[in-house]
Structures are given as structure tokens and as C-alpha cells.
Amino acid sequence: DTEAGGRVTLLLPWLEKARDRAAVYGDADIFSRREEQAEYIRSWLRDTADMPDAAEKLDIRWYVGWQERLENSVYGMGDITGLIPEDEVDVVVLEEPEHLNWYRAPGEPWTSKFKHVVGIVHTNYFVYALEQPGAIIRAPAIKLLCSWMCRSHCHRIIKLSGTLGTFAPEKELVQNVHGVRNGFLVEGKSLAARLRSGADGRGIFSADAPPKIYFI
After folding, report:
1. CB 25: neighbour CB atoms within 10 A?
2. E-assigned strand segments in 51-101
3. Which helix (H) or strand (E) holds 106?
4. Rounded Cα gap, residues 49 and 182, in angstroms
5. pTM higher than the cut 0.85
6. CB burial string 150-163: b at 16+ within 10 A, e below
7. What is the CA 211 to chain-centroid distance, rounded?
8. Cα 195 to the chain's mean position, in Å?
9. What's the CA gap between 195 and 158, in Å, rounded?
10. In what order do the strands lie in the sheet with 172-174?
11. Do 213 and 198 touch, CB atoms closer than 8 A?
């Protein structure tokens, strides 16, 4: 429950295939059951983020996900909105609304299901597409698709940076609502120190480098 009343539910992808979990989280942090991953999240909130109330009260639920190896991305399977009880449909925050809806299964639209839908846009997929084969066709197509997904599925769009392009001018604003955790700064300083000491950057940034997930 929040101070204003109500509750907060975190809806996350559960990777059904063990090989997907190993590829995303690494062999050391693979989870065999959803309950194990939920407990890991609660422990992190309590011990690392110093958020004991959230660790105790946050409602964690799951939808089935899979990893698309070529794009190195996680996508949902099935109708996600259908998993949400009718008595809990108030406000929803979609992290990367364009990504969540590229392969969306048929079902009730987010904007019909919820009273208010906020989309948080993180990534400039247009720039990614410019670096891929067939960029002359792929990049404009992905830009149009991202705009379409954000406009269709959100009442309000919040971009973490003004460099992310335009999706729906009448709906969007720029606001760094996430802030920056100190852990990111510590990791950046540690990485910089390793590179300055002569560490091979290929072992850190290459495709076969050990996986390190910071957000999903």
C-alpha cells in the first residue's frame, strides 16, 4: 500500500526456458522458479536499495516471456492485459511502451483497460536501426512503428531524454523520472578504472562477454 492508499503491482516477464534465463541473467543467477526470482527482487529492495517497505508490500506478478536471440530482447507471450484483475485497473506505467507492444497478442488495449496509461521511453531504437543491415528501410520503419505504438497505447509519454526523437508531440514531455542510482555511478567508475589499468575492452563490451543485466 502507498501513503495515498491503494497498492503497487510490478508485472515482470518470466522466461520459461532455462536457456533463456541463463542467457539473460548468467548461470550464476539463474532462477528455477518464479518465487525464487521474486525473493531475489525483494532481497535487493531491502538490502541494496534500502527500501524495506517496498520489499514487504510490493505485489510481484508475472507474464510469460521469451528471449529473441537475434535482437537480444525479451518479449511477452499472450494477452498481458488479460492477466490484470478488473478491480486493479487504475493507472499503469509501461516501461518502453513501444517495445512492449511490438509483438502484442490480441486483447483489450491498454488505454481501454486502464483509466490512465503512462509510457516511459528509454531507448532510441531509430539510432540502433541505423547501425543494422538494411538501415535505409529498417530505420524509418522502426521510427514509424515506435511512434505508432506509443501514440496508440499511452495517454501520456515521458521521455527520459530529449534525444529520443518525437513520438506524439501532444502527449509527450521530457523528464528524468528515474534519476540515477549511486550503484550506476560506482559501476561506471569501476569500469573506467579497469580500462585505464589496461584491461581488454573486448572482454567487457563484446558479444561473448559475461552478461550483466541492469534493467529488464
Report:
1. 18
2. 59-68, 73-76, 91-95
3. none
4. 10
5. no
6. bbebbeebbbbeee
7. 16
8. 28
9. 34
10. 91-95, 116-121, 156-159, 172-174
11. no
